[in-house]
Design a protein that fits this description.
alpha+beta, seven-stranded mixed sheet, six-stranded antiparallel sheet, 20 helices
């Protein structure tokens, strides 16, 4: 399938009629590049393409129902509704090769409002001829079988979703679901389901032996668990959808705040910045005060005692010196020393000793501390710190914090007055409420994921028990009836499905390793990619055949890994569909952006649609992808017209500028 043109009439931000040419000239020019800021209509364009192809199936509904029409109503241009416009339409033109013949299709979905509720008309034209109802239903049913919505969604590489898959460690689940669709494994699973239904009928007719009955009950239990497992997945998807909807609403409110706030918003941000600076300074002052209170204040309060202790220790030290010298300098020793100096005279020996010892006076009081040298040093150090301590500096900190508190209160009052004066308070509160709702949903999602994983372990245990009983039954003489034959066919289907999957995955591993090394900055860092056919766990190996832990990869490298494997799966499946990249490059560094644009984009599909902001693909990256561009557009939401303007250029990086009506 190759998309040729999409026409939007009063859809989303596209008020009026907007026609966009999507034709390409592969292999040299296979890229359609869309540029646009957030809220410019990129996501609406993607949803419109998907909706035009699948209708209610695009939202997961089997038929057109009230919930589907609610989704449609939310997609219609609000300004057109207020003006009473009754014509809303999506037209998609595409080419499909059938039996080696190229056919041109035109899908037309129109909606008219009936008492405020949309009613849908769906038309299919083939090579310029309108199909009748029978042929239309037959072709649309075949389209949904050959290109089911799940397969088409795999071609939509949403940067946010890819990031969530990587960060939430859902790579294995994503690859398992992808392989089932890409390699047509669902056909074998349908056969196995039919055989299970036959066995169920046999049980109802009481034709099963006791062993067969046990196996049947285990199958029923496993089937029931799988239904619960699917419900968990469905509930996760619903919650994720709610989170996305809330986040989009929050972004819209923020955009509304930005558009209407103008200078008021800048002033508010300036005031808030001052408040933040004040709070940081108060926090710094408070930390200094806490340190002072916990360490120096107790010492300061006892400073007189420390001074007394130091004085007492100094006296005791003199006494100790006096006592030691008195013991060492005996009268005989002094006489010997003096006689050696003054020609043998010992006159005045006693007086000299007394005067010498008087240099080290004894304390009037008794000895108290008898401190060691280390203890005296510690007291001396503490006293020195107390002498240096400037208590006034901490008093000034307290006074400064009080002054800053008053200043912050005044600024917050200004912010409050600013918000209420300009009617922005409600918007801010609504954004905060949405943020709380998103947090609650994320917590609920985490709980459901844990329950689903626990259920998965239970299913594995029961399947192990059932398989053991099947082996015993098939090995016995009881295995001659139709129940055993059905089990053999079922087992044969399972084995064939597993073998085919293993063969496909072998090719995928080779191709994924090659692409991964082309894209990654670390050349030849990964020499082998292994995908377990049962769990779809991905293991990476280096040159020494040692495992490379995926947790050590950066977020960008994990995204590169996922892209490489999915690219390889499409290549091995030989399914040709357009690839659509929606803000994919935002989390990649400069080098990985360059390799994705130069290595992956030119080879991933005959038609590649890229939706980007100017920060994702700047001048440098635009020059890389330029040789492959067939068409380029800029989506610009014009506030005064409440509509999207489309220009035949990518921002200001190309010279052509023709408005598309």
């Amino acid at each position: 399938m190759q998309l040729n043109k999409v026409i939007l009439n009063n859809i989303g931000a596209y008020k009026g009629v907007h026609e966009i040419d999507l034709s390409v000239s592969p292999p040299n020019q296979n890229v359609i590049l869309f540029g646009g800021e957030n809220g410019a209509g990129k996501t609406t364009l993607l949803n419109s393409i998907r909706l035009s192809l699948f209708g209610a199936f695009a939202f997961g509904y089997m038929t057109e129902n009230d919930n589907y029409y609610k989704q449609i109503y939310s997609l219609l241009n609000k300004s057109a509704i207020l003006e009473g416009v009754d014509h809303y339409q999506i037209i998609l033109e595409f080419t499909e090769v059938e039996h080696y013949v190229k056919n041109e299709y035109r899908f037309i979905r129109r909606w008219h409002l009936n008492n405020g509720s949309p009613k849908e008309q769906f038309t299919i034209m083939k090579n310029g001829q309108c199909l009748n109802e029978v042929d239309k239903e037959a072709y649309h049913s075949r389209l949904k079988e050959t290109i089911p919505p799940e397969l088409f969604n795999m071609c939509l590489f949403d940067g946010e979703e890819i990031s969530r898959i990587v960060n939430d460690n859902r790579l294995s689940d994503y690859l398992k679901a992808s392989a089932k669709v890409l390699f047509n494994l669902h056909l074998f699973e349908a056969l196995e389901s039919d055989l299970s239904q036959y066995i169920k009928q046999a049980q109802m007719e009481k034709q099963l032996s006791q062993d067969e009955e046990d196996i049947y009950k285990l199958d029923e239990e496993i089937l029931s668990f799988y239904r619960d497992y699917e419900k968990f997945i469905e509930e996760e998807q619903q919650i994720q959808s709610q989170i996305v909807t809330l986040e989009e609403k929050s972004e819209e409110l923020k955009k509304q705040f930005d558009l209407n706030g103008g200078l008021v918003k800048e002033e508010r941000e300036s005031l808030q910045s001052k408040v933040n600076d004040i709070e940081n300074q108060r926090k710094h002052n408070s930390e200094k005060m806490r340190d002072f209170i916990s360490t120096e204040l107790p010492l300061f309060l006892s400073r007189d005692l420390f001074f007394d202790v130091k004085q007492q220790m100094d006296l005791e030290y003199s006494f100790e010196l006096h006592d030691q010298l008195s013991q060492k300098l005996t009268d005989e020793k002094m006489a010997e020393l003096v006689s050696g100096i003054v020609n043998g005279s010992t006159e005045h020996t006693t007086e000299l000793k007394s005067r010498f010892l008087a240099l080290f006076p004894k304390p009037d009081s008794d000895l108290i501390h008898r401190a060691s040298f280390t203890q005296r040093s510690e007291i001396q150090s503490t006293v020195t710190e107390l002498e240096r301590l400037n208590i006034n500096s901490y008093i000034e900190l307290i006074e400064e914090n009080q002054r800053l508190l008053e200043e912050a209160r005044a600024l917050r009052k200004k912010i409050e007055i600013n918000d209420s004066t300009h009617d922005f308070k409600d918007i801010i509160f609504e954004i905060e409420d949405i943020s709380k709702d998103v947090t609650n949903l994320q917590q609920k999602l985490s709980s459901i994921e844990m329950d689903r994983e626990s259920l998965g372990h239970n299913i594995a245990e029961i399947e192990k028990t059932r398989d053991s009983k099947k082996e015993q039954l098939l090995a016995s003489a009881k295995a001659t009836n139709s129940f055993a034959i059905a089990h053999k066919v079922q087992l044969l289907s399972e084995q064939f499905r597993i073998q085919q999957l293993q063969k496909k995955l072998q090719h995928v591993q080779i191709e994924a390793t090659r692409m991964l090394n082309d894209l990654m900055r670390k050349k030849d860092y990964v020499t082998a990619v292994n995908i377990d056919p049962k769990t779809f766990n991905v293991t990476l190996y280096n040159n020494n055949k040692q495992e490379i832990l995926k947790d050590r990869l950066s977020s960008g490298e994990k995204e590169i890994l996922l892209l490489s494997i999915v690219w390889a799966m499409f290549k091995c499946s030989r399914i040709k569909l357009p690839f659509i990249f929606d803000t994919l490059l935002g989390r990649l560094d400069k080098t990985h952006k360059q390799t994705v644009l130069s290595k992956l984009i030119p080879t991933c599909s005959d038609q590649v649609i890229i939706l980007s902001t100017d920060s994702e693909i700047d001048k440098t990256h635009y020059d890389i992808v330029k040789p492959y561009i067939a068409k380029e557009y800029t989506l610009d939401f014009v506030i005064s017209e409440e509509s999207v303007a489309i220009h035949n250029r990518y921002f200001e990086l190309s010279q052509t500028e023709v408005a598309v009506k």
